[in-house]
Amino acid sequence: MITKVHLKRFKRFENRSFEIIPSGLSICAGPNSSGKSTLLHALAVWSFGVMVLRQSKGEGALHAGYTGQGAGLSKDDFTPINIPDLKHLWYGLKSQIPGEGYSMCIGVEWGDDKHLAIAFSLVQDRLYVKAESSNLTAGDKIPQIIYLPPVAGLEAREEYATTAKRRAMLGRGLAGMVLRNYLYDLEAGNRRLREEKKAGKKKLSSKDLAKIREIDPWERLNASMREIFGLELKVDPFDPDFHTVIKVDVIPVTQAGPRWKKNGPARDIMVEGAGAQQWLTVFAFALDPQTDVLLLDEPDAHLFTRLKVEMVEKLDAIATSSNGPQILMATHATEILKRHPINRIMSFSRSKPKYLRNEKQRVKLITGMGDEYAPLIEKARASKKILYVENDSDARILEAVAMECGYKWPENLAILESTDSHADRLKLYRVLLTAIDGLKALSIRDRDTQPSESVDCKNLRDKGTNTTGYPDFHARTWRRREIENYALVPAALAKMLGECKAKGFWADLGLAWPTDPEKPEETMLIDCDVKDKLNDFFKKEKFGNTEKFLKALEKKYIHRDLDTIAKQICEL
């Protein structure tokens, strides 16, 4: 979906561009007044401008080459966000710039190089909107954007609302006043889907029912509510010819085997706590099939720590699923920032908001928000797993090997780079174990000059390390001198760099080219000291380095030692 946003004189940004990852869940983070909400507001206002032009001037007003006039509206008709005065949309509150009628502009790029910039002008209390630049033509899809501000509570009565009224309520931060409307739509969609699948049959087949529960938004929303809050949603029948008020109840349920059974009387969703209402509202919009881009402004506000983390995990799953929406979420919750993938966090603590690139930047962001953060400890607490390696490249190689071999790499795996002995690493593990119950560790070291007989050939256990009393600490040592030595696969070298170059390098090592290049004799290679020679060779051939070579190995060229350790890590 959206890949870039450019703001000209909008709120706190005079001239600023944002590069955005076009899918999945992106977290916008930073101190108060750093611009997180400004980006979300800009997209909400842009979407509103699209709607105004479409309704007032027709679809052609959004297309390339349109020469007609823009559209005007009163301040009372402005609904995307809640502000005291329209001049607050402008940078420095200056809406009148000499020589510039349309002095504010929001440009958005998405998909296959599509772009549309919407410009705004304020004359007294009247707002004017026009498309300033566009490359759209008939049939081009424009993203459907939903902005969800911090959710206000529900009211006792909720009348059926038109699309325009729903958008107005959302813009004023009153999502709770139209939540039942959206739940009614989701439930109605579920009924239609069931009828389509039934198609004259007496009842749905178990296969069709399983598929509906897997893909249908209403089913997925209910599954989430049952799992997290022990509640199930029920929409009362509604006929617009007879009814004016939409009624939605929650029913307490408890799990009995594979089924859920009623565990109390139905009650209106209004009586549930703020956390449950917040959760329900967020996921109703995230699962709405009409939502292309969902903007969430602190949706975790009423939730305690565990639910904050679970909310983000489930939103990420929705966003990365087939046809899931692109989600941008602003938050101050450091619990979320400690766990979310680094490259999915956009930091607003610097002069130019950008996605983080490394752990140091995450530490700086979180400490700048007034919290302490030790990445190793946080990841160890989250995953209950720690991996000791001599170099961080070792972990990257093993992760690539695990992927190639079909193993699932552990999430939030704590990785500690250290050249310490297994015994010294065990001492640290014992300290961590006092604070992190159930912690498991895998320690991997190069053998270097250590006798090869000290390593168990089957599982690479280091026979010289005593781990008695600590069954969850696993000391492992490579049978070859170091991990780089496992790049000595003649067939792989020949395939990637050419047989002539591979044989030349083999000869430089003083080795005879093996009879079976895919499986060279183990004893010939076990004590080779080739780390520097390999890196020099790859550099000379402009291939990068040994890490790149090992990460690119096909499964058939991966040595069983690498496979063994990668599997052990994934099974920790």
* Proportion in helices: 25-40%
Instruction: Order the strands across the largest sheet as they lie in space.
Output: 2-1-5-6-7-4
Integer-rounded radius of gyration: 29 Å
- What structural category do the secondary elements indicate? alpha/beta
Provide the low-confidence segments as ranges: none
Number of helices: 18
Please, what is the average pLDDT?
Answer: 88
Q: Could you describe the 3D structure shown?
A:
- By secondary structure, this protein is of the alpha/beta class.
- The protein contains 18 helices and 20 strands.
- It has helices at 36-57, 163-171, 179-198, 206-215, 217-229, 274-287, 305-320, 334-337, 359-368, 375-383, 392-405, 422-435, 490-497, 499-508, 522-525, 531-540, 546-551, 560-570, and strands spanning 2-10, 13-19, 25-29, 71-74, 104-110, 114-123, 126-134, 145-148, 231-235, 248-256, 259-262, 267-268, 293-297, 326-331, 345-347, 354-355, 385-389, 414-417, 440-445, 473-477.
- A hairpin with a 2-residue loop joins strand 10 and strand 11.
- Helix 5 (217-229) runs antiparallel to helix 6, helix 6 runs parallel beside helix 7 and helix 13 (490-497) crosses helix 14 (499-508).
